[in-house]
Amino acid sequence: MTIPAPPVLNPHRPLALALEVSVQRDLMQRLGPISLRNLVLRLRTTTAVCVGQSSEEDVRYDHICGIVGDIPIAPAEGQNDFSLDPGIWKSHVVPLVSPTFGSSVLSIRHALEVICGFSTGTHKRIQCLRTGVEVIIADAEFHDPPPAYAMINGIEELACSSSDDL
Question: 0.85 cut: is pTM over it?
Answer without folding.
Answer: no
